[in-house]
Please model this.
Amino acid sequence: MTLVSDHMDTTNPTPSHPAGEPISADRVWEIIKAIDIAMLVTRWSDGLRGRPMSTIAMHEKGLIYILTEMNSPAAADIRADGSVFLTYQGRGDHVALEGKARINPDKGLVKDLWNPGAQLFWPEGPEANDVMVLEIDPGHADVWDGPGLLGGIASIVSAAVKGRSPDLGDRGQVDL
Model:
């Protein structure tokens, strides 16, 4: 039995999301704001590399921020090629988005974004010389807005009994 599929069953629309109804950009921003950690994938000389990073999503600015060090591998990769890919995974929600990143050394922005998690990594505070911001302008996003593990299992069992495809949530694409 396949639990995760790229199949979209448009014959079993849910009452809340009729078949073909797009997922909104606002919903994508809600999802990525609720999921703190994303896998940041960058290009480097030998291909692609990824690392989990804490993100700060600012819907009102249309940007995603990441605090890191000026000499980090992520910053070096972005200096060479600003193309990035971010993946977010929640209990039932998944977002994969591409974007363009740039380095922003503005200490005022570092202070504005400072949070308790950042304090754990940089106990000397936002004034630390090497702390800077990766500023990501997201482009296209692929979204899976699902019911979570228990809801997914219930849908699979119900669908098996009824001889239908399970409703594992809504899937769509949106430009941010």
